[in-house]
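Appendix B, Record 12. Input sequence as logged:
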Amino acid sequence: MSYLSYLVFSMAQIAPTTVNRLCKKHTIVTVNGQLPGPTIHVRNGDTLIIKTYNRAKYNTTIHWHGVRQLRTGWADGTGYITQCPIQPGGRFTYRFTITGQEGTLFWHAHVSWLRATVYGAIVIYPKRGSSYPFPIPRAEIPILIGEWWNRDPIAVVNQANLTGAAPNISNAFTINGQPGDLYPCSRSGTFRVPVQRGQTYLLRLVNAALNDEHFFKIASHEFTVVAVDASYTKPYKTNVIAITPGQTADVLLTANQPVGKYYMAARAYTTQQPGNFDNTTTTAILEYVGRQNLGRPILPRLPIYNDNATVARFRRGLRSLASREHPIKVPLKIDESIISTVGLGLLPCPPGQTCGGPNGTRLTASMNNISFALPTIALLQASYFGINGVFTTDFPQNPPVIFNYTGQNVPRSLWAPISGTKLKVLEYKSRVQIVFQATSIFVADDHPMHIHGYSFYVVGRGFGNYNPVTDPLKFNLVDPPERNTVGVPVNGWAAIRFVADNPGVWFVHCHFDDHMQWGLSTALLVKNGRGRLATLEPPPPDLPRC
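Logged structural output:
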């Protein structure tokens, strides 16, 4: 495979495709007729030019999840945040450069729930002349966890938005687009990975599911984690991966077991009660070559769905590589300290309507009691061109009301947030700390928080209420993991740090799509610095209009 300075991915055709899943024929939206979509192979330093054509009936964008997008915020691909969507029959060319990132990321649609079937992996190899900081594997295999509905996902979320109820749970999870042979009518399509005994392989794991975190295991095998979210880690041995939507993990797998077949399997990790989430298991098959094996694969014993201890242990084990070749720069002094609650809530049903939420209410979500209202003009365009009335810049620096965030019986007066399109303004090169504080309003839940345009260091995490005096004393400022999506523990908090060195408007949101749809999001408006290299590029001429 050859690599050029400019990689052109010229035929990104977003269009309807017919597939057979779970005993039925379905028409879904895909890229280039594939589920998952094509894997993009690039090197650190390459520039991508992706010509995107929308042949589907829905508005769409493509978001390059985790890509830093230095000065190229117009290419971030976030509907109504950095661009107006590509309308049916329209087209748009995304142009951006991979800078300082190596490992695995992914791309997905970022309008409504189209990303249920519009997604694919991004594999970023080291710069020319460089190599991995671990032994070169025999082969590399992308493993993408997805989520499948037997209905059009857009119809599922539209129905939920209409009634105020939670959306219907998925019918299956998938590995590389296939549910696996534990589901009906799915055996022939089950994804298979052939391996040779004694060889080591690199699995590029992506959680592209919409509303569920996952445990991932392979029967009788162990992993060595070597990177997360396109950032190298110290080698970390484990027999289970805990991964939220929006996260990736590069793991080495040595085929050191007796020749045979072994299931790789994924199931949901959640704090919800059975019946409120998809409690099925997706599988693929690891097959040793060498002799024919007709027996049934061995199934791994996955953790129970609410195994908080296993998740916490896995997260504690991740540390940045922090080597001379791959240094890290954790901000030690802070210019902007933000504490934001993240949680769910309930709104009263409007007069004359019937609502499907608990006790006739509407489900909602918020950050610092602000439920984000998606605008009808892209925020970046409004900021760049000085269009008034689209957003305000008064997102609260701290929770507007101090209460026992993770306690029981939170007062009902705190259950209903305020709707608004409120942004937080950051000076260029300011050193930022954000503490995401989960709440138990209505119901406690995990929240995988994602920030566009940035990677950040996860310097601390804990259960209960964050203590700004004592908890920072325990922060890891030496080798914290660098991520673009952080799992905020149920009834807990997570602290992140980064330098605001990328001007633009950057979406901050929970990567559970139902939570994001309810308003668990905001945006950062990072000002330009001095000079061309510290200034957002002008918008491209083919930027879609609203």
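The two ends are 39 Å apart (CA to CA).
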